[in-house]
Structures are given as structure tokens and as C-alpha cells.
Design brief:
With 125 residues, the chain is mostly helical. It is 70% helix and 6% strand. It has one domain. Strands 1-2 form a two-stranded antiparallel sheet. Helix 2 runs antiparallel to helix 3 and helix 4 runs antiparallel to helix 5. The longest helix is centred in the middle third of the chain and has 30 residues.
Length: 125
């Protein structure tokens, strides 16, 4: 029940809905080209995490060499800037005591957005 309440508050006040829509739009645009489809799929994965991050966790390093190469391309063209924007939003949220849980979720999104290939998002028990 607490996760549900936190996810609703996140979607409305923590920027979750807007962030998820941005990832969905970017994913849809990337999927318009054959080369962009793998990157668009990662945007969709991050959008799901961005919409309801409470109760979810991620593990990385599950892809080998292809994931590493895709992560390098992702990092050079988008990952660094997305990472920095989530860090800035997290710092802004952490300025208030009530915003600290939202800041932690932006930190989670920052690390997933830094290198999404080979990262698995799963429900926390």
C-alpha cells in the first residue's frame, strides 16, 4: 500500500509522469529507424521505471560485449546528459526533507539511464 501511495505521489509531484512521457516520446522517435530500435526499446524500459519507481530495483551487467558497445554509443549521444539531468533533479528534490524519497528515485533513474543495455529492472519483494 505504501508503494502505491508513493508511486502516485511520484507520478503527480515528483516528475514521474512527465519523465515517463519524455522517455516514451524519445523511444517512439528512435523506433522510427531500424538503427534506433534497440535504443528505443531501452527508452521504453526506462519509461516504465520512471513512471512507477517505488518497489522496483535494477541489476546491471547482463549483456556481454554487445551490451557494452551499445552502452558506449548510448553514453556518448544521450546517457551522460540524461544522467546529469536526473542528478540535478535529484539534488533539487533533496533540498526538502519531504523530497528525499523522490531524490533517491531520480538517483536510481540516473544510474539506469547512464548504461541501460544489460540492465534488468525487477520488482523488489
Amino acid at each position: 500500500m505504501v508503494r502505491f501511495v508513493l508511486n502516485v505521489l511520484w507520478a503527480l509531484f515528483g516528475g514521474g509522469l512527465l519523465t515517463a512521457l519524455e522517455y516514451l516520446l524519445a523511444g517512439a522517435l528512435l523506433c522510427l529507424t531500424v538503427v534506433g530500435i534497440p535504443f528505443g526499446v531501452q527508452c521504453f524500459k526506462i519509461a516504465g521505471l520512471a513512471l512507477f519507481p517505488f518497489g522496483k530495483d535494477f541489476t546491471g551487467g547482463h549483456g556481454g560485449a554487445p551490451s557494452f558497445l551499445f552502452n558506449v554509443v548510448w553514453f556518448l549521444f544521450a546517457g551522460l546528459w540524461i544522467f546529469l539531468s536526473h542528478i540535478a533533479l535529484g539534488l533539487a528534490c533533496a533540498a526538502t526533507l519531504i523530497g528525499i524519497p523522490f531524490a533517491l528515485q531520480h538517483l536510481k533513474l540516473a544510474f539506469v539511464a547512464l548504461a541501460p543495455f544489460g540492465t534488468r529492472v525487477h520488482e523488489r519483494p
